[in-house]
Amino acid sequence: MPNFLHSLAGLSFRHRRLVLTLWLGLVAATVACMTSFGGTGKLDNTFSNPGSESQQALDRLKADFPAFSGTSAQVVFTTSGGREVTDPAEAAAIRAALTAARSAPQVARVVSPFDARTVSADRTTAVGQVLYEVPQSSLEPGALDSLKSAVVSADREGMEIHVGGAAFGNAPTQSSSELLGVGVALIILALTFGSLLTAGIPMVTAVFGVATAIFGGLSLTGAFSISSTAQSLALMIGLAVGIDYVLFIVSRHRFQLAHGMAPEESAALAVGTAGSAVVFAGLTVVIAMVGLTVVDIPYLTAMGLSAAGAVLIAVLVAITLLPAVLGFAGKRLTPKPGSRAMRREQAVGGAATAADGAKAANATERWFRLVTGRPLLTVLVVAAALGALAWPARDMRLALPDNATAPASSSQRIAYDRISAEFGPGFNGPLLVLADTSHSTDSTAAAQQVVAAVRALPDVAVVGTPLTNGAAHTALIRVVPDSAPSDPATKILVSTIRDHRESIRRDTGAVIQVTGSTAVSIDVAAKLNSALIPFAVVVIGLSLLLLLLVFRSLVVPFKAAVGFLLSTAATLGAVVGVFQLGHAMGLVGMDATGPVSSFLPIILLAVLFGLAMDYEVFLVSRMREAYVRTGSPLGAIHNGARHSGRVVTAAALIMISVFAAFLGSESMMLKQIAFSLAVGVLLDAFVIRMTFVPAVLALTGSAAWWLPGRLARWLPNLDIEGDGLEHGHAAQDFMVGTAGGPGRRDDAVSASPTVG
Fold this sequence. Notes:
The chain is α+β, with helices and mostly antiparallel strands. The protein has 27 helices and eleven strands.
């Protein structure tokens, strides 16, 4: 791998105009394909769960009750000033509004509140239903805006009209706040390199990668179901790793330029060494994200594949486009003699003794010296702190987002709150019970018996009159729970109705199924919850295997797995604390609490796993190399901090800023994902990798790098950091000359360049 990447980078450097032209052509091709075959108008935000009871019943509704098979909207009319919705003038205005709603695009049916008896007890609120035969994702662009315009046109003094319902799900929207994350990343890069030119390179290459990934994904929306959340996740992940991967390689390249290496040779060596670690880190993220497909939920599959594609493109950009860009930059990336950047690079590469090492220590190394001074205390404090942060996760509630957490000023949120206040929270998420009466002697009587049986169950507020289809021998029954759609009591009610399936069949001959958006949400959450532990086991097992191969050690993989579990658990605890319990929720732009998105835990596991392996490889590989050269366990830890600490710190801060920028989204799902990834990277990079890891390595000493002889002979040597390439390279004498010879047992710097 290192030799191949070295050759590829050299080729890209020499033929930089051709490489740049090819990448520009690729971006143009994806834009053309998006325009011709896809686009944002074809994004599909429908939640489906193939094989589940709710999905099977929903599919049957399309044939038997098409008007109830799609999404729906609610039109809430509220009077004031002593007026009542049943007053002749008010009732006429309501009928006029609903008549106008029938003319809105794709509306299949409109149900008057006077026919459905959805008028509040004090007669100040009435709710009309607007039904579609298609899911939300199949609505034409502007269909909901047309509905709003139609009903508001009947507005009159003393009456407020708000439109909400499932059709107005809070899908992700792009906002200018995301540009703030890019701006912060540019500032961090400028401070890291001390050069705007060098700082601009990761930004430019990241834009190429993200543009290719996003436009490429949008070009597939005509043939595949891809959600707007999937595209937002791809943008978030692609931008973060695209900047970080290039940062690692450019840092190595600049270090080598500062010590006199020619630009072409330096670019090839940087990609061959640091680029090998980038490929490994990127593939771990890709594998984890592709692994989401085994859950067999299309919405999650699209998210996983979209993010995996963005990461894969970011890796390709780093090993092909980047060396071409470095070729255009030439020697201009070399720090100026006497500059702060040059002194910093020379200080990293020039310490040769323990005393010199301590004197040249940067801020990261000083921190490492502090935490390794009392390693046992450090480990205990970290474990206790993360355990306390993880504690709220034990009460985590999972559900799909609904309008209860939409912005307080939005029409759908106002409609949701008013319906909850006047009719009860369950009215916002009614259940649909589909009864197959084909084996009953009297279909109508059987449907009425099902109604009576369901009405007798606890937590049932209202059971509607059954709607029958004589030709299909089916009946549709609307059940309104006492509890909100995301309330655990509603989940219990769904289970209770299903548990009574057999007794209802014996008594009536009817076979029932529970569906509707609330039941679909419950079934999706159950499926994801059941897949979480097996997926976590696979991810942890994969991390142990990969790190065993990379570091040829038993302690390092075990320590990394424990640290990953601690940071993940603590992140989930933080998510529960903010979004479910409401602690500091104003800081993330929230005004109402709600459950955690069903998709979040498994997405967090996949993404954080890849990023954790990223930092583990770049940080600990420096320590392992130094230990092999010097034989000093503690000196190797400090050496790793000196070489890699600064760039790992910068990479983590960039990722945090990119993820945090997406907190401005109005989508609660995307907001939760952004928050969890920002907190996850913060904890994993600074608490685990920069604190817990050096403390554990200091505790275990030389045993941290021990591997049984038989296992050592059996395991292949992956050489992720390109150590063999460095030592077999013509520049070996140059590199060794910067750091003292091998075999020293002091706190010397290792003899090879690093990503720092």
